[in-house]
Amino acid sequence: MPHLHRLGGMAKDYEKIYSKPELYWGKKPSELTKRFAELAPEGVALDLGMGEGRDVLYLASEGFEVIGVESTQAGVNKCERQAHEQGLNIKTVVADAREFKIAKNKYAIIVAMNLFQFMHKKEAADICSRAIAGLKRKGLFIAQTFTIDDPSYKPHKRKSHEIAPGVFRDGSGVIYSLYNYGELLEMSQPLRPIYYAEYDYFHAHGGVGHWHGVADLVGKKI
């Protein structure tokens, strides 16, 4: 996950946020990962933009050999500390998900939760393509991203420069993307969709409750 997340003109510095002792995203794994990971074959799991590692830790506890990629050192440190406390073996890499080399035909499961809104859609499509190539047969790709139904869409339309449909660049050059209906599903072709949904939900983390418009995807390599 990139160091800065700009939402409605406000920047969030995740390096600073993850340096705090409390878990910003909590201990529970994402619902998508918890619900569908058991459908993946045995093997190696890869989490791109793992944050504090909640899905990495869950997948390791389920018997996967796990690699977690995260651009913030604080996030990696927090994940490693939790893994040590729980007696879990994991591998972590401090890197931008866009630059991480995904080996072909290697992974049983690849997770990209709330990653794609922090980059240009062309970059997200490239990650999807490389992730699909990186899955072994029957491997799962699990992803979630924000849609144009997200409350941040209108502020971005007013305050930021739209450099491509749904892709915004603010005055400081930070890129933020919000996805149209079915767009995440299109990016995941030719995976066989196991689950796909677009919806609004109320979420509370970091002490503040707010709404999001999201798209969820689980696809299988056939």
Please give a structural write-up.
There is one protein chain. The protein is of the alpha/beta class. The chain has a single domain, classed as 3-Layer(aba) Sandwich (Rossmann fold). It has helices spanning 14-18, 31-36, 54-61, 73-86, 121-134, 153-159, 183-187; strands at 4-7, 10-13, 44-48, 65-70, 90-94, 107-113, 135-146, 161-164, 167-169, 175-177, 192-205, 208-220. The strands form three sheets. It has a seven-stranded mixed beta sheet. Strands 8-9-10 form a three-stranded antiparallel beta sheet, with helices on one face. A two-stranded antiparallel sheet has the order 1-2. Helix 5 links the parallel strand 6 and strand 7. The longest helix has 14 residues, at 73-86. The radius of gyration is 16 Å and the shape is globular. It starts with a strand and ends with a strand. Residues 1-11 have low confidence and may be disordered.
CATH arch. level architecture: 3-Layer(aba) Sandwich
* Integer tally of domains: 1
Which fold name corresponds to the CATH topology? Rossmann fold
> Secondary-structure element order, as H and E?
EEHHEHEHEEHEHEEEHEE
The CATH superfamily label reads Vaccinia Virus protein VP39
Helices and strands: which structural class?
A: alpha/beta
Q: Over the alpha carbons, how many angstroms does the gyration radius reach?
A: 16 Å
Shape: globular
Could you tell me how far the N terminus lies from the C terminus, measured between alpha carbons in angstroms?
A: 29 Å
> Biggest sheet, in brief?
7 strands, mixed
Q: What is the helix content?
A: 25-40%
Percentage of residues in DSSP E strands: 35-45%
